[in-house]
Design a protein that fits this description.
The chain has about 90 residues and is mainly α. Helices cover about 70% and strands about 0% of the residues. The radius of gyration is 19 Å and the shape is elongated. The chain starts with a helix and ends with a helix.
Length: about 90
């Protein structure tokens, strides 16, 4: 086995381990809580306060934070779906 093949095999094992760990600790309820807590259903740039409906000036820093929170949740969902897909392949 070449060094490159060994690296690829080790990386695949690492990814499988990471996904298994996430799947054992991150539940659908956790994802739902994070989505509600960070209001990821809202656009990144807010022109109104979500709580009061009052007009607000768009804040690029807050938009970046909201975008980052949304991306983390999307990544968690992706990793969990890939774990489920792999589990279905190995345990039909």
């Amino acid at each position: 086995m070449t060094e490159e093949e060994q690296f690829e095999q080790d990386y695949k094992a690492y990814v499988a381990s990471r996904r298994a760990h996430l799947a054992s600790h991150i539940t659908p309820e956790t994802i739902a809580y994070l989505e509600a807590e960070f209001q990821t259903n809202l656009p990144c740039y807010q022109t109104r306060n979500p709580a009061t409906g009052e007009p607000v000036e768009p804040n690029p820093i807050m938009a970046a934070i909201r975008d980052g929170q949304r991306e983390v949740i999307l990544w968690l969902k992706y990793e969990l779906s890939q774990y489920e897909k792999q589990q279905q392949k190995t345990n039909p």
